[in-house]
Amino acid sequence: MQNLLLPNAAAAPCCAQPRRRPSRPSVRASAVSSSAPRRETDPRKRVVITGMGLVSVFGNDVDVYYERLLAGESGVGAIDRFDASGFPTRFAAQIRGFSSEGYVDGKLDRRLDDIHRYALVATKKALECASLAPGTSAMRKVDKERAGVVVGSGMGGITALSDGIASLVTKGCGKISPLCIPHAITNISSALVTMGAADGFRGPNYSISTACATSNHCFNSAADQIRLGRADVMIAGGTEAGIIPIALGAFFACRALSQRNVDPGTASRPWDKDRDGFVLGEGAGVLVMESLEHAMRRGAPILAEYLGGAVNSDAHHMTDPRPDGLGVSSCIRRSLENAGVALEEVNYINAHATSTLAGDLAEVKALKQVFKDPSQIKLNATKSMIGHSLGAAGALEAIATIKAITTGWLHPTINQFNPEPAVDQFDTVPNVKQQHEVNVGISNSFGFGGQNSVVVFAPFKP
């Protein structure tokens, strides 16, 4: 299993480095600095982002992914992976033309569920971005006992499980693949990453599964491993590959999916009065998170800083959010407290905003409970273009948040035709990108079961 990744694969272009910022703090930052809670100053406990990698409906390159988001493209279209003609919803943000060639051994690649293939490629690209490509001198210098992985998913290898059930029904138990269970359980993506993409990381290794809040839970947990002194570097993120018949049918049964089959490109409409449900997506996103001390010791590229985060529960309903938004507002407040950030410092939010009737309004209500002057905050919805990739959603949105920090540009929220009055106080970056210097950005993710998770990022300042 040690040859999961081909050691001589050509290196992909690294994600672009942050643009140079003036050293003088902005007037806004200076005005609020005195009221900010104390941030972490110990370089052993400060957590920085040194690499990003992904697999998405817009391809496997972080910069191309963000360029297409900035352009306001929709990645949603008709499903052609299977015959969806008998389903009420016949479209999704489906990945097409994916190849792991040069990243995953060919024999293994043919056996893996897509969820694991996505995770391996995203991880390898994140490590390349962090100047930690497998086999390099920089990677050999990493203490593998203090390097770990936390990659989760909402559903695990659901294709492997579905195939196993089909074999049982049509051929009997003797024809079920011996890899059915290993490929179906949620922790195997993390396990496969350690064996190949991460060049043998032997530190903390586990998976978290909290539905659509998964990725942010993984980021928070990975940061805790660093801050508690258990690890120097962590690979963290989420992966999902659920565009298959059983998932499409089951989400329709939950009355969660849009049915805008005539015009799928406009189906994902966060905060629009005519929204009718979310669009199923897929992919993977991975961050390389390091202690500042470790990153500086090896001269790593630093893209942004993870300031903190929080997780909690609505304790309300299996699928519906609390209509009063109290669980979410509490989670946001706790995340800012953990990050050492004052309310006035936050000027960008990447919203969960799935395009569901109840969820969109509950999140906005929660934001208004926390931020008394929303007019100062830019709010956008990545899912308007790439759909909802469930356990991977938070990771793909964290990458969009970090790219907003490093580029100074916010991607639009597309399909804003008839916005809800409830969101009027926010600038939702409707339909066209905006230039904006992010002071502190937060990214929200919420999942079935009342799972809430929030992460806080900012430009890195030595």
TrEMBL record:
Major location category of this protein: plastid
Where does this polypeptide localize?
A: Plastid, Chloroplast
Per UniProt, the ranges with Low complexity bias are 24-36
Q: Name one GO molecular function term.
A: 3-oxoacyl-[acyl-carrier-protein] synthase activity
**Single Gene Ontology BP annotation:** fatty acid biosynthetic process
Decide whether keyword Acyltransferase is in the record: yes
Q: Which reaction does it catalyse?
A: a fatty acyl-[ACP] + malonyl-[ACP] + H(+) = a 3-oxoacyl-[ACP] + holo-[ACP] + CO2
Tell me which residues this entry annotates as catalytic: 212
Q: Which UniProt keywords apply?
A: Acyltransferase, Chloroplast, Fatty acid biosynthesis, Fatty acid metabolism, Lipid biosynthesis, Lipid metabolism, Plastid, Transferase, Transit peptide
Tell me where in this chain the Ketosynthase family 3 (KS3) domain is found: 44-459
Q: Which SMART domains does the annotation name? A: PKS_KS (SM00825)
- Region annotated Disordered sits at 15-44
CC per GO annotation: chloroplast; mitochondrion
Q: What does this protein do?
A: Catalyzes the condensation reaction of fatty acid synthesis by the addition to an acyl acceptor of two carbons from malonyl-ACP.
Quaternary context: Homodimer.
Family assignment from sequence similarity: Belongs to the thiolase-like superfamily. Beta-ketoacyl-ACP synthases family.
- This one is known as 3-oxoacyl-[acyl-carrier-protein] synthase
